[in-house]
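Intended use. Records like the one below are meant for learning the mapping from a protein sequence to its folded structure. Do not use them to infer anything beyond what is encoded.
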Amino acid sequence: MPTEILMPALSPTMEEGTLAKWLVKEGDTVASGDLLAEIETDKATMEFEAVDEGVIGKILVPEGSEGVKVNTAIAVLLADGESADDVDAAPAAKPEVSAPETGVGNDNGGPKEAPAPTTAPASPAPAAPAAADGSRIFASPLARRIAADKGLDLAAISGSGPRGRIVKADVEGATAAPKAEAQPAAAPATAAPAAAAAPAGPSADAVAKMYEGRNYEEVKLDGMRKTIAARLSEAKQTIPHFYLRRDIQLDALLKFRGELNKQLEGRGVKLSVNDFIIKAVALALQSVPEANAVWAGDRVLQMKASDVAVAVAIEGGLFTPVLQDADMKSLSSLSTEMKDLATRARDRKLAPHEYQGGSFAISNLGMFGIDNFDAIVNPPHAGILAVGSGVKKPVVGADGELKVATVMSVTMSVDHRVIDGALGANLLAAIVENLENPMVMLA
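Structure written out for the chain above:
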């Protein structure tokens, strides 16, 4: 029987995506690992690989389709001995693809007739199963069908396909084992009170009505903008933020940076102030290890390595690629890695593991002339450092004399569930110490 190729979940948070481009056509023979399509998630454009061998019998979702739900059938794969006639004999379920809404009414102004109900489609492969802890088990449609026929528990099978996906070869040689019967969860003695819903703003129609008669252009939200809106709204409503502010004198750092860049010219490396900030934050998280932590719902995870996320502005949104083990890397290594991540972020070519994780973030708007600002903590991070521009200001020196110094203002936004005031102050003090005494970062 033909096997459905389903819209994959290419990241843990992906619910739908855009099928940007097909890399195969009907009639093509594919093997496990061959590239099938390019799929745009809310963050990146990624290539989708085949997990089974066969022939592409029919493409169900054309390229360019937006809002294709995860686990929607996008194509049909034929096995040995099957033909395109088998696809026509077993109609697939209608793909869940978002389409522009149409107004109610026909050319005569009357209401349109409701479409007649369609015939129920042939049974597809069993739904994607879940493990005992509720996590999703990734298996190809053919592997799920074989497992269902043989009575196999996919939770007990290790996958050999891409990203641990269970494929045909994994289930063909497996033998059935009795599944543990799930026990119904006991009903709670008293129902927990429903959480108060966040107040909703005016509807889209209500907003449009406010501007009736005024000229405007309606801009459709893409996946990235929807995700940014949802995550930052949730963060601002649920994370108890507090803010710590400091001024940092940069003259010693700027002089040291100039000397290093002269020595690094032959290697084609040019350090930026942001490279020093990344290093300063990474070392500070090691100096104040209690602050190198993330919020995990009912617990705090204290991290060992300093994985620092850095906000990168791109057209229509932003990425926060993560520099792992930043405390262990040299300034030149951090500079090279950050330039590579930023370039691929702007091209939307980052893999999920390159922008997920980290315990602390940096957002630098100094290059735009911003003196200071407050950033929103990106969960599950415990904090984010908002960096302003370096400006020459009069300051009072240690000897009491007035002098001119290059001063950079920073604001650290902190999740109070993870970091208390004194701990946050210690972390920010360590960051300031590293930046005002840059030689220390090389020790």
